[in-house]
Predict the 3D structure of the following.
Amino acid sequence: MLRASHRHYQSLRDEVTFENRALADSARAESLLQWGRQREWRAAQAVQCQYVEAFAGTLCLRVFADAAALLIADSGGQRRWQSGYVSAGRVQFSPHGWSDFCPRKEAAECRLP
């Protein structure tokens, strides 16, 4: 009986550990996205990426032929996206354009390069 209880509690502990890690990764991805919105991006480059150690994640900007832009933040497998556009040579992000799912029709456009 003690062995069964031990396995049960160990299983619960593993679930809590997994959820804590997922929540932390999610928070880092959201923070990374917000940090990326504040950067000055080169609108002339189609794809730009950088690893940001402070958030343990990767941030990429994709600029499409139709002047749409997409900021992608990934931390620990948790991804967030921010829609935007290029205007007068600068990347502008939509104030309410962030998402936790791919906002583009083609899923490949939402992947990290």
In short: Residues 2-110 form one domain.
